[in-house]
Amino acid sequence: MTRWAIDRLKGSGQPFFLMVEGGRIDHAGHANWARTLVDETAAFDEAVGIAVDGLDPKTALVLVTADHETGGLALNGYPDEKDGIWSTYSDPQGDKGDGPYPVVTFSSGPGTKRQTRRPPHGEDDARPSGIPLGSAAHTGVDVALYAWGAGADRVHGTLDNTAVYDILRTHLEGTSHAR
Ligand SMILES: [Zn+2]
């Protein structure tokens, strides 16, 4: 879909703005479906790759960000080498009374006990949550902002979310003036 949209817009010969959302990343976060969340993030990564491959970095600016995180995804130490983030940690010394616990958990949401729909990856998809909610809450953690192409150097350090507007506007105005 991203390739189709970019091809159509490039074909118009006009400057354009395109927003592509990996919206099901959020849905998986709300449901605490960790494996689905990883799949959806990989699909979104593929869409970003298509944009970068199909655009000219001398004129195009690609920004990748999120409007919020969902569910409070945590990667708790210490995954084993075989199963990685999908492993369950057990204290090998057995003297602290810690664990076992899954490496991937959420701060809120239906967890493993309040699922109302069958997760796409089956029982192993849902991960525990600390605060039981029918649907996980959005969180206030900082989100990443990645930039590629013309004007990407404006993206650095810690920015207020309104900076995204300023960066886009500056780029779009520069593009339209260049015509
Ligand atoms: Zn949401």
Poorly predicted ranges (pLDDT <50, ≥5 residues)?
none
Largest sheet: 3 strands, mixed
User: Into how many domains do the coordinates divide?
Assistant: 1
Average pLDDT confidence is 93
Radius of gyration, in angstroms, nearest whole number: 20 Å
Quickly give the structural class.
alpha+beta
Please list the strands of the largest sheet in the order they lie side by side: 3-6-7
- Percentage of helical residues? 25-40%
Q: Gap between N and C termini, in Å? A: 27 Å
Notes on the structure:
The protein is α+β, with helices and mostly antiparallel strands. The protein has one domain (2-178). 32% of the residues lie in helices and 17% in strands. It has 4 helices and 9 strands, in the order αααβββββββββα. The chain has helices at 2-11, 23-31, 34-54, 162-178, and strands at 61-65, 69-70, 74-75, 88-89, 101-102, 104-109, 129-132, 138-139, 145-149. Strands 3-6-7 form a 3-stranded mixed β-sheet. Helix 2 (23-31) packs antiparallel against helix 3. Zinc ion is lined by residues 26, 30, 70, 138.
